[in-house]
Design a protein that fits this description.
The complex is a heterodimer of chains A (402) and B (243). With 402 residues, chain A is an alpha/beta fold. Chain A is 46% helix and 17% strand. Chain A is built from 16 helices and 14 strands. Chain A has a six-stranded mixed sheet, with helices on both faces. In chain A, strands 7-6-5-8 form a four-stranded parallel sheet, sandwiched between helices. In chain A, strands 1-2 form a two-stranded antiparallel sheet. In chain A, strand 5, helix 6 (128-140) and strand 6 form a beta-alpha-beta unit. Chain A is globular, with a radius of gyration of 19 Å. Chain B has one domain: TIM Barrel (Alpha-Beta Barrel), CATH 3.20.20. Helix content of chain B is 40%, strand content 15%. In chain B, helix 8 links the parallel strand 7 (159-162) and strand 8. In chain B, helix 2 crosses helix 4 (73-83) and helix 4 (73-83) runs parallel beside helix 6. The chains are: A alpha/beta (402), B alpha/beta (243). Chain A binds chain B through residues 20, 28-34, 36-38, 175-176, 181, 185, 188-189, 192-196, 287-291, 296, 298, 300-304, and chain B through 49-54, 56-57, 60, 64, 67, 72-74, 96-103, 121-127, 137-144, 147, 151, 162, 165-167, 170.
């Protein structure tokens, strides 16, 4: 690779991940030895599958016939008027099971079947990935166990019922902080116990190589479609693309196809209450968690910090290694919005566009509103990663408290 | 790590005893360390981590307890340094990468505490030089033979043979696969079998196939229950008189 190219240029040219699964100083595979053979096997199988016309044709057909792709691109006319910028919504909330998570779940379930796995395990935070995995496993005919933090089980009850109806076994995790992070710990332990027969269907662009790459490749469809839709139907590229970032799977899916374009990329993290938050890129330091080197919320002794967000899906102390690289190279900027700002943006979208967004996606909206204020009249693409029906209980609590 | 290798060679089947730094309390940990060093051939001192992904329920609980009691990586190394002249067995540190990366000048701090090296389950062979300290390598039953040979060659002090597929603290039995796994690791560096060892019978069964064992969860269970870890260790070595 030409050394005179900047990190961002090399990134746009496809230099990352490198052959060791690194994204510049981030990424890699920091796992117990027992997980090295299954991760090698997964890397080989995923590389072969993604290069295989048969697998790609199956996936494309399933995405069309089951997921309902391509998802709509909605020009948000009244929101645009209110914010003084041209707002376009990439509608992953319209995908089957209600969020972008189904893209990676179905892609990996097809891969698990191709690899001859006997069962699938997954972790989930908000429950969207768990629901998507349960649905995908039902579709391909594989038994499925979903690990979910006990705290999330309580605040996302409808999704727990949904997973069970779809045939998955939901195992609440009470260890640690009982959120997404503990669920990942527990899913990894399950995998360690049976690394050959089990497929670990990871939901975000985090974890050891090949997961951040595999999940990105399966989520890129969001940005590929959005780019084509804007070019074909809406007068050209956007000036800005905005997405919420927890682990960062919908954001990397939206961003990646725009890396070589003159499009400013904005990741929006969960600022929580301000003092208590999950804004990893904004406040984190480099470290190693869940098999990857990335930015982490941690104390001075390297212990992982407890996080807070009104949205369970963003409540994670790490971030995908490719986002750490995008922040490091300056190709994308990351900001945090508070619970309150996200709830305000949520309410505005409901009132002005008749769309009930997920609380995670509402962070992207709140971030987009700030971009609109800073760049009046600009064209802003917002990744609307999921629908908010799962958040009704939280929203009603907030409404009652107000 | 020469002292570690010599201690294991001197007393087969050797016992490497794992104690978690800061247990039962940061104050009483020094005493536990000294007493355990009189019974064990090698002492592994665990530095607690908030997300111990390779550990089973007992050690998860212990990590939470130790951190809750105020244990810190620097504090644990300070304790080892303070009692190093009273320790009767060489010490290695076992922890995850993240808390070790957070320690400034790790090689210097380990040397000052008299620690011989580290065992870091989430630090892969490919990054073995990352911390700048000698490493005991772990080899799993599902590790391919060519990779196992590279791990054995890179390992310092001893080779840590993971004997059960799973996190720490599970059950262990001797299967033909396991004896084959242990046999392929034999070489100039001694091999200790770990994961799930809790009885003298297991130690005796494993003894012909390796140079010794690592006792971890069983010892930590004793500590969590308020028992005497030295007594637990003596119970694993029926032929050796109480020190």
């Amino acid at each position: 690779m030409n050394a005179t190219l900047s990190l961002a240029q090399r990134h746009a040219a496809g230099a990352f991940p490198d052959e060791r699964g690194r994204y510049g100083p981030f990424g890699g595979r920091f796992v117990p030895e027992i997980l090295v053979p299954p991760l090698e096997r997964l890397t080989t199988a995923a590389t072969a599958a993604l290069a295989d016309d048969g697998y790609r044709a199956d996936l494309t057909r399933e995405l069309r016939e089951v997921v309902g792709r391509p998802t709509a691109m909605t020009p948000a006319r009244r929101l645009s008027e209110a914010w003084g910028a041209e707002i376009f919504l990439k509608r992953e909330d319209l995908a089957h099971t209600g969020a972008h998570k189904i893209n990676a779940a179905l892609g990996q379930a097809l891969l698990a079947r191709r690899m001859g796995a006997a069962r699938v395990i997954a972790e989930t935070g908000a429950g969207q990935h768990g629901v998507a995995t349960a649905a995908a496993c039902a579709r391909v005919g594989l038994p499925c166990v979903v690990y979910m933090g006990a705290k999330d089980v309580a605040r996302q009850a409808p999704n727990v019922h949904r997973m069970r109806l779809l045939g998955a076994e939901v195992r609440p995790v009470t260890a640690g902080d009982a959120t997404l992070r503990s669920a990942i710990d527990e899913a990894l332990r399950d995998w360690v116990a049976d690394p050959e027969g089990t497929y670990y269907l990871l939901g975000s662009a985090v974890g050891p190589h090949p997961y951040p790459w595999l999940v990105r490749e399966l989520q890129r469809v969001i940005g590929v479609e959005a780019r084509a839709q804007l070019l074909r139907d809406h007068g050209g590229l956007p000036d800005h693309a905005v997405a919420c970032v927890g682990g960062g799977s919908n954001a990397i899916g939206l961003f990646h196809p725009f890396l070589a374009d003159p499009v400013a990329l904005h990741g929006v993290e969960a600022g929580g209450t301000g003092a208590r938050h999950a804004a990893t890129v904004a406040h984190g330091r480099p470290g190693v968690l869940h098999g990857t080197r990335s930015l982490l919320l941690q104390d001075a002794h390297g212990q992982i910090a407890d996080t807070h967000s009104v949205s369970a899906g963003l409540d994670y102390p790490g971030v995908g290694p490719e986002h750490a690289l995008l922040a490091h190279s300056g190709r994308a900027t990351y900001t945090a919005v508070t619970d309150t700002e996200a709830l305000e943006a949520h309410a505005e979208l409901c009132r002005l566009e008749g769309i009930l967004a997920a609380l995670e996606s509402s962070h992207a909206l709140a971030g987009a509103r700030k971009v609109a204020t800073a760049h009046p009249g600009s064209r802003i693409l917002v990744g609307l990663s999921g629908r908010g029906d799962k958040d009704l209980a939280t929203l009603m609590e907030v409404a009652c408290a107000a | 790590m020469r002292r570690v290798t010599e201690a294991i060679r001197a007393n087969p089947p050797a016992i490497a005893a794992y104690v978690l730094g800061g247990l039962p309390t940061p104050e009483r940990f020094a005493d536990v360390l000294v007493r355990v060093s009189r019974e064990a051939d090698v002492v592994e001192v665990g530095i607690p981590f908030s997300d111990p992904m390779a550990d089973g329920v007992t050690l998860q609980e212990a990590n939470v307890a130790a951190l809750g009691a105020g244990a810190t990586p620097a504090g644990i190394l300070r304790t080892i340094r303070q009692v190093r002249d009273r320790l009767e067995a060489p010490v290695v540190v076992m922890s995850y990468l993240n808390p070790l990366l957070a320690l400034p000048n790790l090689p210097g701090q380990l040397a000052a505490a008299g620690v011989e090296g580290c065992i870091v389950p989430d630090l892969p062979l490919e990054d073995a030089d990352l911390l700048g300290v000698p490493l005991v390598q772990l080899v799993a039953p599902n590790t391919p033979d060519d990779r196992a040979a590279r791990l054995v060659a890179a390992s310092r002090g001893f080779v840590y043979a993971v004997t059960a597929c799973g996190t720490t603290g599970g059950a262990v039995g001797i299967t033909p696969e396991m004896t084959r796994h242990l046999r392929r690791l034999r070489g100039p560096t001694p091999v200790l079998a770990g994961f799930g060892i809790r009885t003298a019978g297991q130690v005796a069964t494993l003894a012909p196939h390796c140079d010794g064992v690592v006792v971890g969860s069983a010892l930590v269970r004793t500590l969590l229950d308020g028992g005497d870890p030295a007594a637990t260790l003596r119970g694993l070595r029926p032929t050796r008189s109480a020190a």
